[in-house]
Amino acid sequence: MARYTGPRTKIARKFGEAIFGPDKVLTKKNYPPGQHGINKRRKTSEYGVQLREKQKAKYTYGVLERQFRNLFEKASRTKGVKGEVLLQLLEARLDNVVFRLGIAPTRAAARQLVLHRHIVVDGKVVNIPSYSVKPGQVVGVREKAKSLEVIADALAGFNHSKYPWLEWDESLKSGKLLHLPERADIPENIKEQLIVELYSKQ
Prior knowledge:
Blueprint: H1 8-15, H2 24-28, H3 46-61, H4 65-77, H5 82-91, H6 94-100, H7 107-115, E1 119-121, E2 124-125, E3 138-141, H8 149-155, E4 166-169, E5 174-177, H9 192-200
Antiparallel strand pairs: 1-2, 1-3, 3-5, 4-5
Helix pairs in contact: 3-9, 4-5, 5-9, 6-7
């Protein structure tokens, strides 16, 4: 499936946040891209604000429209607060769990590791980034991939205690999803209620 491969800094500047990770350019140019970006002061409509929040969530987690809508529909059928359940489903994606475990420095890098069959779930290779990890499942690095420089560099000094819903085993280079995260434990600056309001109009 296609993925956004354009300039990431331009997208980060559009939202005014480093949604793809630390960005040196963003600290210098903290205004929207384009010829009139620095002077742009036009008021955004309510719909525009809601659409912007959905786009931010999609770019943050690397999900395209059809997958995002399917996740929202699944969240709508699941017991709980709709917006919070949507974020939990996004957090449970295999590429995101690999990123949260510190196995990869970014979600894009995590996606590559999954696609290249370097990641195992409960000991079996899974090469589907959108695979939904269930509580109790163990996500780890395939034995022959443990020496990969990108993985070693990402894990070096990574603080595994910052996500209480994950448990890391350093000796096995694997982590267990203990439970789906509470909203307060998800660090992303996403106003999920705006996304719920947007889809409720469609």
